[in-house]
TrEMBL record:
Keywords: Cell outer membrane, Membrane, Receptor, Signal, TonB box, Transmembrane, Transmembrane beta strand, Transport. This is TonB-dependent receptor-like protein. Signal peptide: none annotated. Pfam families: TonB_dep_Rec_b-barrel. The keyword Cytoplasm does not apply. It is a multi-pass membrane protein.
Length: 194
């Protein structure tokens, strides 16, 4: 199912899905270990996956340089016996405020963005998984095309997980070892088009 409305200053969308899968393949621990590592077996079961996304994008007139985007995503996976499938991502709510600008004679297609991404608790887990706590990450971005004389290059600077939130994503392969995802990181990108 897909429903979308769009005009020059507003976009709204709803996307839904339902899939019934025969012989869905997933892993499950056998209870055995090999060199201190859990041994997993591949198993097949009939399953269903369903969920969707809803969101909107707004950039008001006459402030065409200002954009606000928000979306919520969800997916549920269940076996025919109603047990949850393993390794299904948690619900997520993503919000971005973005500006576009130009600084005369030296910066074109400039942008600055603030992103707040909230991942919710994942309690719908299979029998061998553990639930995961939710977390919120804050990210900033800045960039554009710099022109210095006849030289032009794209530059962007991103600050991810600005508040250095300690978290472990539900789908992390290192979750059982208690290893958190990456903390605060700053990324500078420069791209020359020769």
């Amino acid at each position: 199912m897909n429903l979308e409305y769009k005009n020059s200053h507003f976009e709204f969308f709803i996307n839904g899905f339902y899939n019934h899968i025969n012989n869905y393949i997933y892993t499950s621990p056998t209870g055995q270990t090999l060199e201190d590592n859990d041994v997993f077996a591949y198993i097949q079961d009939n399953a269903k996956l369903y969920g969707g996304e809803v969101g909107f994008h707004f950039h008001p007139h006459p402030l065409d340089w200002l954009h606000f985007e928000t979306s919520f995503e969800t997916v549920t996976g269940k076996k025919d016996n109603k047990d949850y499938l393993p390794l299904i991502p948690a619900n997520n709510w993503n919000n971005t405020l973005r500006t576009e600008f130009k600084i005369k004679n030296w910066l074109e297609e400039g942008f600055a963005s603030l992103n707040v991404s909230s991942t919710f608790d994942q309690d719908n887990v299979s029998g061998f998984e553990t639930a995961s706590k939710g977390y919120t990450l804050v990210n900033l971005g800045f960039g554009g095309t710099v022109k210095l004389g006849k030289t032009a290059f794209d530059i962007n600077l991103n600050g991810n997980n600005l508040f250095d939130k300690k978290y472990i994503a539900h789908l992390s392969r290192l979750k059982t070892d208690g290893v958190p995802n990456i903390g605060r990181n700053i990324v500078l990108g420069v791209n020359f088009n020769l």
